[in-house]
Amino acid sequence: MTQPWTLEDFVKDALGRVPEIAAEELHHGTSRQEMVLLDVREAEETAGGALEGAVHLPRGLLELRVREHVARSDTPVVVYCGGGNRSALAADVLLKMGYTRVRSLAGGIERWRRLGLPITGGAGVRPPPGKKLGWEEVRREFAIVARCVPVLGEGERALVYMDHAASTHAPSSVLGAYTEFVAREYANIHRGTHHLSRKATERFEECYGIIARHVGAELQRGTICFTSNTTQAIDLCAHVLAERPGLVVTTEMEHHSNELPHRRRGPTLRARVTDEGELDLGHLEELLRGNRVKLVAVTAGSNVTGVMPDLRRVARLAHEHGALVLVDAAQALARMPIDVRDLDHPEHIDFLAGAGHKAYAPFGAGFLYGPRAMMSEVAPYIPGGGTASRVTANGAEYLPAPDRHHGGTPNIAGVVGMARALAFLQAIGMEEVREHEVRLMERMLRGLRELEGITLYGPPDAHKRLGVATFNVDGVSDLLAAAVLSEEGAIAVRNGRFCSHLYMDKLLAAGAKAAGGEVPTGAVRASVGLYNDESDVDRLLEYVRKVRDRQWRGRYQVKGDVVSAEFAGRCADKWMEATKD
């Protein structure tokens, strides 16, 4: 039976005909002025810069527009892309069109960048050449900024969205790439030779490099497997290590997604957190010293307090005791720079899980990064279409990772959207993203601390946490507080226990003990994102103060975990208060 071609097959076939040029030769050559440099990346990819003098001509427009830029068929042409695959395919197309002096830049702009060769902004469309996105430009990318919602007694008001720790909205450029793929390039990958299938395959394969760049990974010894979300990515890691001897150590601050998948496959231990919500590294070391541990599973940043464990120290401790490390990067992926480091580095991260819907992409796509050899040795996560190279009546030969674990058709459009969202973040700069969140969190934490009657969980230093603040208002349930913020302040926050019950139990008990009151059943969580600004933080603080002072204007009925509200106005010079059934 004839096997379907993969993008790798297409690239190898093209490279058999297309000569390459090394970055060093191109940079030091004396005939640059005689040649045409073609950048065949998409507009979003050029945000980080281009080669000086390059003509930006996306691969999809190559056949249509190339003669406008290269009139003579004997003109020297060098084609480049991100990593060298698309440029090989594009150069092959030019050869078939009659161009005789075409070469592909080996390793693409990524190898050029690694060699420290000069980059300019010459091919950029968004942002402007040589310039990163500014914050006003970032805000304009998000339609949600102009969204108005009804509020009690006031008609409508602009929404302040502070539920980024649950899900983020996609910017217009990401939505554009997503809908463009669905509308014009929608086809299955790795299974066809027709134009749309080849195009979809190219788009999908590009995503590996974009995601690898975002987390500092290399894809020779490492690999990326696509999943539907972070939970599935963590479950895939648990599957890969299921037969490996030893215990799994999680921590008390983990989201259930980084606890339950390990639990169902074998015994687990749990590293403690302090009353302030920070990881007790001394206890982790005790567990590693006293047990045979195969994996330490830890969050890069808590979804409750934003606390960021010292991942470098965790990794070093784990590796010193023969254990691997899995990092749940669901919260951190869009909030801070991440570098998994080389697999030989003592502080490297072995596995890293993340998803697009917390990183400004549409729902439905996630990924697991891990060691390629290890992930190619275990049985497929879900055997099925796309995972086998050959199937007989009595057996099957499975492909290596990542295809080994991509059972069935993946969410191709979702993966494309996730990669475009990470490219958008890269265009801003993850250091800048982090600085923006710290600035907003300093304002928020300072304001909450200055309000009496507020219990704030986690460290007071904004530099020690992601853009997440969880708190309670004395004497007001978390459900009622969140409802007032929403129905009267048009502020979207989250309340409850945030799928981190063990952590919340400890935080709520410690907070109640310090305050000398009863232990609450939940808390309110406000989390900032790219398009929040100081005015959003100030409105949150304004309405938290109103909740504390019982100055809400509505009549609220709380039944279990559901709250209903109606406008009450004034009654006998006293604000109406909540009623409970």
List keywords for this structure.
581 residues; alpha/beta; Aspartate Aminotransferase, domain 1; 35% helix; globular
Structural write-up:
With 581 residues, the protein is α/β, with parallel strands linked by helices. Among the domains are: 7-120, Oxidized Rhodanese, domain 1 (3-Layer(aba) Sandwich); 144-167 and 430-567, Aspartate Aminotransferase, domain 1, CATH 3.90.1150.10. Helices cover 35% and strands 19% of the residues. The chain contains 18 helices and 27 strands. Strands 9-15-14-13-12-10-11 form a 7-stranded mixed beta sheet, sandwiched between helices. The chain has a 5-stranded parallel beta sheet with strand order 1-5-4-2-3. The protein is globular, with a radius of gyration of 26 Å. Residues 1-5, 122-131 and 569-581 have low confidence and may be disordered.
